[in-house]
Amino acid sequence: MLKQFRWFHPNIWGIDAESLLMERGFDGSFLARPSMSNQGDFTLSVR
């Protein structure tokens, strides 16, 4: 269900999320992804 949202990235690591936001994002951009360390949790990355 979450896959339909452009801000949800199910297969991305933290360092890749940071790079993506720095390269393509702007102030206020964000993305959410599943936590790699706490199964069932999510991580929000914000620029």
From TrEMBL:
Biological processes annotated in GO? cell differentiation; intracellular signal transduction; mitotic cell cycle
Q: Where do the SH2 domain residues begin and end?
A: 7-47
Enzyme Commission numbers on file: 3.1.3.48
* Pfam families in the record: SH2
Q: Which GO terms describe its molecular function?
A: non-membrane spanning protein tyrosine phosphatase activity; phosphotyrosine residue binding
**Record's superkingdom?**
Eukaryota
InterPro entries noted in UniProt: Non-rcpt_Tyr_Phosphatase, SH2, SH2_dom_sf
PANTHER family, alphabetized:
TYROSINE-PROTEIN PHOSPHATASE CORKSCREW
The molecule here is called protein-tyrosine-phosphatase
